[in-house]
Design a protein that fits this description.
single chain; 450 residues; mainly alpha; Growth Hormone, Chain: A; three-stranded mixed sheet; 80% helix
Length: 450
């Protein structure tokens, strides 16, 4: 392995000797600090899901306005994932982790300044938009870590990286609960102050302990290939169903409990962290199951179960049963976490399988899969995050019309049914005899081995 300061010039994780003697140790170290940075990024991105719990009647913002604040953060976080993906190839994974971590100071300090009654709604919207930079950390982190690990380890590694990041959602909710319970619902600045030193710590550790991979630097061709490939957009649709659900529900959970079930801020905060926590912890399990049984099988099973859990939530919403509602809603978080892990395992497997079917040798196919899947993950992550925007806008419309989320959950049920159909049709239905997945083929893409 050739290394120049913070740049590693040669990297071949599919070489088992290289992986065992050198690669695994370096990859695991980079994974650890990547998780830390992404974790804090998710906390900042989801900041307004708890800031709205501090915003009592004195702020003069109705539930629809609060849902729109959350949706604004979600939207910006989705769109910045695209340039954040490119940033890894342009600047290096280590370098961009340092920069993206320090950028989290901007929305945190801004919220610290404006978070008080009397601030205009437009100002709150602007500051909520700034927190979107935290959502971008996921794309750059996943693209970077994808390049470090061999295909046989990607489900576990990507699941752990994403799951550790996703835990930032329940952690900020737990910290909000602690602040509300001890200092009261009028002290949001205490929560914001906790994150300032953590952001600096994450950036410092990334600078000292992470590496850049030269083989992925400046590889803009991979982005063009990912954009042209139908599987990128099919997987983005499926990721809307898994991650879009996770982040959308995570941002909206506390507000739904307050608006539909009349919970106080403290009561809502004491419940909202449970679902995101379980969904985050189980994401690596989804990746590991996909490594063993195939990502498409786990993903389809997940969507079927999500449809069932949504049916339970619809019933609970109609009957106004908080206990049943919590059971169904928490189940949705757990299942979305499983699906997050399995869908991201599918992505590199799809591109490697296409390369093999197109006649590439094993080593060339593995390299192709790493290149294109890294770029595709950023695009898939961006569109998946837009699912969170969709969920919050559907909730906003449902509550503004009826004061209940029932219609929203019926809409989500229909979407999960569509995800089931797409997963089965594209990745599990046995193709006709002679059909293939040759790279560049104009035929409908179908894979049965992912």
């Amino acid at each position: 392995m050739r290394r120049t300061k913070t740049w590693i010039e040669h990297w071949d994780p599919e070489d088992e000797t290289f992986w065992r003697t050198t690669g695994e140790r370096i990859a695991r170290r980079n994974l650890l600090y990547s998780v830390l940075s992404e974790h804090i990024g998710f906390s900042i991105w989801s900041l307004w899901s708890v800031m709205v719990l501090f915003m009592g009647p004195q702020y003069g913002i109705d539930p629809a306005g609060k849902f729109f604040l959350i949706a604004t953060a979600t939207t910006v976080g989705a769109f910045v994932r695209v340039p954040y993906t490119f940033a890894v190839a342009r600047f290096g994974g280590r370098n961009w982790t340092v920069v993206s971590s320090l950028l989290l100071l901007v929305p945190t300090v801004a919220a610290l300044v404006v978070m008080e009654p009397g601030t205009s709604y437009g100002t709150f919207l602007a500051v909520a938009a700034l927190t979107g930079v935290g959502g971008g950390n996921f794309a750059s982190s996943m693209t970077n870590i994808n390049a470090f690990f061999p295909l046989r380890k990607k489900g576990w590694a990507l699941g752990l990286n994403a799951g550790g990041g996703n835990i930032g959602v329940p952690v900020v909710q737990l910290l909000a609960l602690l602040v509300i319970a001890t200092a009261g619902a009028d002290r949001p600045r205490l929560l914001l102050s906790i994150y300032l030193p953590l952001i600096v710590l994450a950036a410092t550790l990334a600078a000292l302990r992470m590496d850049n991979l030269a083989p992925v630097r400046g590889d803009t061709g991979a982005v063009r290939e990912a954009v042209r490939d139908a599987h990128t957009w099919i997987m983005a649709f499926l990721y809307v169903g898994t991650f879009g659900s996770f982040i959308g529900y995570g941002f909206a959970f506390g507000l739904v409990l307050q608006t539909q079930f009349g919970r106080t801020p403290l009561q809502a905060a004491s419940l909202t962290f449970i679902g995101p926590l379980l969904g985050s912890l189980i994401r690596p399990v989804g990746g590991a199951l996909a490594d063993r049984f195939g990502g498409a099988r786990i993903t389809l099973s997940t969507f079927v179960a999500m449809a069932g859990a949504t049916g339970v939530v619809v019933l609970a919403s109609v009957r106004e049963s908080l206990g049943v509602f919590l059971v169904g809603f928490v189940a949705l978080f757990v299942l979305s976490g499983l699906g997050n892990g399995s869908t991201y395992k599918m992505v590199p497997a799809i591109f490697q399988a296409k390369a093999l079917a197109g006649g590439m040798g094993a080593e060339a196919a593995a390299a192709y899969g790493r290149r294109v899947s890294g770029a595709a993950m950023g695009l898939i992550g961006a569109l998946g995050a837009l699912g969170g925007l969709g969920i919050n806008l559907v909730f906003r419309e449902a509550f503004s019309r009826s004061g209940s989320g029932t219609a929203a959950f019926v809409t989500f049920l229909g979407f999960y049914a569509a995800c089931c159909a797409v997963t089965w049709a594209v990745y599990l239905r046995r193709p006709a005899a002679g059909a293939g997945v040759a790279a560049g083929s104009a035929a409908k893409p179908q894979l049965t081995s992912v």
